[in-house]
Structure formats: C-alpha cells, structure tokens
Amino acid sequence: MLISKIKYLKALGVRCNSSHYVTTPIFYVNAAPHIGHLYSAVIADAHCRYQRLRYPEKTVRLCTGTDEHGTKIQQAAAGHKVKVAQYCDEISLRYRRVFQAAGIAHDDFIRTTEQRHKTAVSHFWQLLQSRGHIYSAAYSGWYCVPDETFLTDSQLRLDEENGGRFSLESGHAVEWTEETNYMFRLSQLQDEVRQWVKQEARIRPVKFQKILLDTLNEPLPDVSVSRPSSRVHWAIPVPNDDSQTVYVWLDALINYLSSLGYPDEQYVRNWPPAQQVIGKDILKFHGIYWPAFLLAAGLAPPQQLHVHSHWTVDGQKMSKSRHNVVDPVQAAEQYTMEGLRYFLLREGVAHSDGNFSHVKALRVLNSELADTLGNLLSRVCARSLNPQQLYPAPQAEHFSQLLRDLDAAKRMQEALLQLAARCEQHYESNHFHLVADTVMAVLHATNNFFECAKPWELKAGGSCPNAPRLETIIAMTMDALRLCGIVLQPMMPQLASRLLDKLNVPGSQRSWSALSENFPQQQQQTPVGGWQPCAIPAHCGGISIPVSVSIPVGVSAIQAQ
Questions:
Q1: d(Cα 238, Cα 223) in Å, to the nearest integer?
Q2: Is the pTM of this model over 0.85?
Q3: pLDDT over 60 (residue 10)
Q4: CA 271 → CA 20, 43, 121, 181, distances in Å?
C-alpha cells in the first residue's frame, strides 16, 4: 500500500519550477474553424499572457495545433474530392491563419501528421506495451464514427421507430463493430485516475470534476486503442503490426508530449502541463483516458484541466444543418479580431454555454470599448482641454482637494485600489468576464469623476480657469486609463497596446508590478496633503502623447484601423 502511494505521488510529479506549460486541444480538421475553436485558443492565450505579465520570471509555453487522423478525415477529404494529405494541409493552414489574426501567441503549432509526432506516438505505444498495459483481443461494441469512440449500452439512446441507436451525449448514430484490436487495461488504473481527479483544483470548474467522479464510480471497461488498417488507413500504424492503426484519441493526446520533443529528454523541462484548456465535449478523453495513459507510462498527468462550455448562436446549438456556424474570419470583418477576442472572453463563462448574437456583440463592443473606454480617452486627450498633448504631473494640493470635495473622486480611488488584487484573483481562475466587469467598473467610476470634476470649466477661456487643477484631473483620469490598459493586455493585447502607446507608457512600465505605481497607492502611504509628485512613476510626468495612434470611438472606428 505504501509503495503504491509513493508511486502515485511520484507519478503526479508536481514540481515547483519556472516552467508553465499550457495547451489547447488540437483541433480536428474535418471542418473549418469556428468561434468555438477560437474560444479555446483565446482562453489559453489570455491565460499565458497574464502569466507572463504577472510572473516575468516564468518560462511560459503555449502549444496548439491540428488533429489530422481518423475515419472522419478520410470521409471529409472524399466529400471534397481531394487527397487526404492535401485536405489536411488546407484546413490546418486555415487554423494557423485564424490564430495568427487573433494574436494567439503560441510557441508551437503541431500537426499529428508530422514525423516528430509519429515518432513520439510509436515510442509511447511501445512503452505502454512493454509495461504490460496493452494486449490483443477480439472486441465488439457500438462504435460512433463522428465521435471516434466505442460506447456502452448505457451511453446509447434507442430510436423506437427505426431501431437505430444514437449517442446520448452527442446524438450521433452508432454502428455495431466486431474486430480484433489492441486493448488498454483502463480498468486496472481506475483507482489511480480517481485519486488524480479528486485532487483540489485538478478539474475546473468543479461541476466537471463531479461529472468525472460520477463516471469513475462505475466500473470502467478496458478500451480499444487500435483499429484495423483496412477500416482506418489514414492513421499511424501500430509499431510492428501494420494490420492495425493507433486509435485516434491515443494518437491525438500524445501531441502534448511530442510538442515538447518527447521522447528526447528535453521534454521533462516543461512537463507536466500546468493547465490544459479543453471543451466539455472531450472531458472523458482528457479527464479519464489521458491521465490513465500517462500513469501507465510512468509519467505525470497534467496539474489542471480547465474545461469550458460551448457557444450557441441566438439561443440555438451551432451546427451545419442550421447554417448558423460562426466563421471567425467573417465575424472579424464586422467586429475586428480584437473585438471578437474581447467579446468571447467577456461573455463566455466556463460552467455554462455562452450565447453569440450579432446584436449582443455590437451592443457590448459599442458600450464598453467605444463609449466607456474610447470616449473617455478621447475626452481626456481632446486638444481643447489638453492643447499641449501632455500626460501631466498632478498637483498634490489639488489632488487632495478633489478627494476631499468630490465623492466621485473617492469612488474612483476606491475602485483603483481594488483593481490589481481583484483582477489578479479573476485571472488566476480564468474568469475573464469578471476581469472585464472590474475594469468596466473602474472606467465607469472614472467617467463619473471626469464629469463631476468639470474640467472644461477650468481650461483657459473657461468659466473659472485653473490650470493646476485641470492638469490634476487630466493626470488622474489618464492614470486610471493606464492601469486599465495594463490589466486588459491579456484579453485584447493589440487594443491595450495602442491605448498604452497613446499614453506613451514605456514597455518597461507595462508589467503587472506597475499597477502598484498609481495615485491612490501613493495617497494611502502618505498623509492627506503630504503626497509628493516626485513619487509618481517617471512616465507620468510631462510626456507627450503620440497623436498618430487612436482608440476607436465606435465599432465603425475599430473597423477603420
């Protein structure tokens, strides 16, 4: 018992090192990319960008790619009347281009048709076989071609009218299959997989952990890990047995290792993954099969699975038959890729399906990016108020007076004091919608402060000119925009960069640590009236604003960039 526990803890292999390896699922090339695929990639990308921002000492690595083997790929290529290899090349390239346009900063884009991956699969198979986890047996059962998996009777629905059987989960038809395959001894690893799943924060959100535990409470049958080459020829051959090809899910899952150079020892520098982002439809494969395969091979399973839900379109399931599949390239023509990134992260929540609608997307982008963010920047940079186009240093006396006299200034200060801690908490949990909520609350408070402070009355020629007070109002408003720009970098890197460029914030001052360098923090550390302008970061005092960069004041303006 003790030896078993020691082996288990060793296999978990949770190490305190500087590596932070993150993966998306690799995307099946049986169809072109849609917003659900982009959503997975954007979650992983925003997570990695935050990790780099918050922990600059870490080596953060992001891997994505395409899954290119199996029956569905054979059928899709035949349907398009092209060779399978050509079909895979074309669809894989479309994924690359979408991710490039969306600013997905991946370190590797792997394809399962690459030789490096085939080498890794062959080595992993032989390792499992040598450790006694694979055996040959006659196998029969209900096979679902679209889902590439065998299903038990309890996972099927019987159509009383025509006698057909369908997957309860996906609704796809199944067919009875009898063949001699290689089997993986999943049943022997059930307890170890359950132990892994039960670890705190292993599966997030918690609802998906409960789904896995419910499945693991029932006996698991051994799983087929090969198919006859005569049926599935577009696949990786089983080592030393050309009559069989490797099961597409075993093949696909190994990409997370092959991307790191496995079986070369260099892969251990980044293993195990800190987080693997997946959709809920592939939970079983990543939450049961994948840790079982790894434990069987003596390797550590991932430290965390982040599982997200799906997207509906105007309240309906996205499907080809409904002709409502949202192409991210077409959507970006209307909202820009940066706007689409923001909307997906703003509206998507991991535990429930998100709903995509063009009306909602326009409303959110216009309300939050154009009216709240863009309009505030336009107002504070207006030449009528700021003719010299400066990010001015504040006047301590007027800063204290504004906090004393204006409730709106106090509310803005309170919101800014909470910004970094709240957003850090939300980013750590991949709660991007709550990051957006927090930032928008700060911007609303800042807009309210700007309106209540009435800077237009203080300019030269105004009803009561007061240049020092005006400069202080401008400085406080710009500082709020600067802080929000830093926080928003993981969610919309290009737009946040343009905002910070507009304020002429140096690259060295855009890290998460720069959030502590602001007026409210200084005010907390110094008695009222004793705050000194020299304590403000160097980039805050007397710096010209580049006039060639603009933040959109409407969705149409975003399109024009």
A1: 16
A2: yes
A3: no
A4: 9, 20, 17, 31
